[in-house]
Write a structure and sequence with these properties.
It holds the Pfam family DctM. Part of the tripartite ATP-independent periplasmic (TRAP) transport system. The chain has 442 residues and is mostly helical. The chain has a domain at 72-296 and 433-440. The protein is 76% helix and 0% strand. It has 22 helices and no strands. It has helices spanning 3-19, 24-41, 53-68, 75-88, 94-103, 109-125, 128-145, 150-160, 171-180, 184-190, 192-212, 227-233, 235-249, 255-272, 278-312, 314-325, 329-344, 349-366, 371-385, 393-402, 407-430, 433-440. The N and C termini lie far apart (50 Å).
Length: 442
């Protein structure tokens, strides 16, 4: 059995294990390690397992060691901790609180505020799943109490939660930058305009939905905190976002340094406002450690898998096949989009990324395309995958935290947002300047 055949069988096996819900880190590491052993054991044409043990262990342990000791990966625990500490300090939801006060009197105003709140949460936490979970607990019950259509209430939060993938900081951008060796700071900046464009599209969908069906979003009274008080209360969230984006763009901080500075600021603000205590802070740190360990295991297993793919030569074979087919740019992008959308129906975003990047990156480089721009396209496609059936993770998260609203109703509501998401994707493909104008002006 030649190396490429082993690689193709391994790819099929990984997909099967992921479909069976085997944890992605274990699936990737086990298949990649076993596949690497088989490649070395059959390299001479005979079955020589005694010659395969040393090179296999060397490949597995050196790749995992190199990744864990990567400087860029150090920003993962910092941004994870930032999101958790900011949540316990009551900072992550203040954009929603302010937007709810400003927009409450508009048709669908609370749903629009939920989407904006998701954008604000994303600008601190960097996690789509955490965003959907937290905002689902806060926003959906309030909208249901006000008489909102359950489809609108739940789908607006499920869709808004996907903004955590694009608006910096983003864990997906960090992993993409590590595996493609591109600037994570530039990736963060490249996601700003696409993220804002996606947010604007979601708000337009809500406005269109309510205009067609006014009963879906009864108007609320304008009573409550004053607009000025609500806006002032959101200052910590605005400050943290300004430090991350302004510091990186201005060259004052690297992405890792910006994360560290924001963690210190968040802790100081939390204690100053008496929303944090040592016990609560330790709880946030414990949660951050668990989440970070999970991400590190996945990233380490993915690094081993990428090395295995390179060893089999599959990536080079795919690039050669595409070169022989002489696909145009339009056809190439259509194929890429279809692949990601189909995988997004069944797999989680990180799994899709680590499975596809070993093949996509050489392909994109062969066409002379910008890897920063391509990173935005990939993350946008992964964002869409979070809300597409049958395994839209954000939909299941919102359903679990709200209770009482069926999955089918949430997917029915989400379907109204998908057209705008695809439209934004087309704009990002046709006009790369949307993604690269900010990082290009650094």
């Amino acid at each position: 059995m030649d190396a490429m055949t082993i690689g193709l069988v391994a790819m099929a096996l990984v997909l099967l294990l992921l479909a069976l819900r085997v944890p992605i880190a274990f699936a990737l590491a086990a298949v990649a390690s076993g596949g690497t052993f088989l490649v070395y054991a059959t390299r001479t044409g005979d079955w020589t397992p005694e010659r395969a043990l040393n090179p296999t262990t060397s490949v597995v342990f050196s790749n995992f060691f190199d990744l864990v000791h990567s400087y860029d990966l150090s920003m993962v625990p910092l941004f994870v901790a930032l999101g958790n500490i900011a949540f316990y300090a009551g900072i992550t939801t203040r954009i929603y609180d302010a937007a709810a006060v400003w927009l409450r009197g508009l048709p669908g105003g609370v749903a629009m505020a939920s989407v904006m709140g998701c954008g604000g949460f994303s600008a601190i936490s960097g996690s789509s799943i955490a965003c959907a979970s937290t905002m689902g607990r806060i926003c959906v019950p309030e909208m249901l109490r006000m008489g909102y259509d359950p489809k609108l209430a739940t789908s607006s939060v499920a869709v808004g939660g996907t903004l955590g993938s694009l608006i910096p900081p983003s864990v997906l951008f960090i992993l993409y930058g590590i595996f493609t060796e591109t600037s994570i700071a530039q990736l963060f900046l490249a996601g700003i305009l696409p993220g804002l464009l996606s947010l604007a599209g979601m708000i337009l969908v809500i406005a269109w939905w309510v205009a067609r069906d006014p009963a879906a979003a009864p108007r609320a009274s304008g009573e409550g905190a004053s607009r000025s008080q609500a806006a002032l209360a959101a200052w910590p969230a605005v400050l943290l976002f300004a430090v991350i984006v302004g510091g990186i763009y201005g060259g004052f901080f690297t992405a890792t340094e910006a994360a560290a500075v924001c963690v210190v600021l968040t802790i100081a603000i939390g204690f100053a406002e008496r929303r944090l205590s040592l016990e609560v802070l330790w709880r946030a740190v414990r949660e951050s450690l668990v989440q970070t360990a999970s991400i590190f295991l996945i990233a380490g297993a993915a690094k081993i898998f990428v090395s295995f793919v390179a060893l089999t030569g599959i990536a080079g074979g795919v690039v050669g096949w595409v070169a022989d087919a002489q696909l145009s740019f339009g056809v190439l992008m259509l194929v890429i989009v279809v692949i990601y959308l189909v995988l997004g129906m069944f797999l989680d975003p990180i799994g899709i990324m680590v499975l596809t990047l070993p093949f996509m990156v050489p392909l994109v480089e062969g066409y002379g395309l910008n890897l920063i721009w391509f990173g935005v396209i990939v993350v946008k496609l992964l964002e869409i995958g979070l809300i597409t059936p049958p395994v839209g993770l954000n939909v299941f998260v919102v359903s679990n935290v709200t209770k009482g609203v069926g999955i089918d109703k949430i997917f029915a509501g989400v379907s109204r947002f998908l057209f705008v998401d695809l439209l934004v994707l087309v704009l990002l493909i046709l006009f790369p300047v949307i993604s690269i104008i900010i990082p290009g002006s650094m």
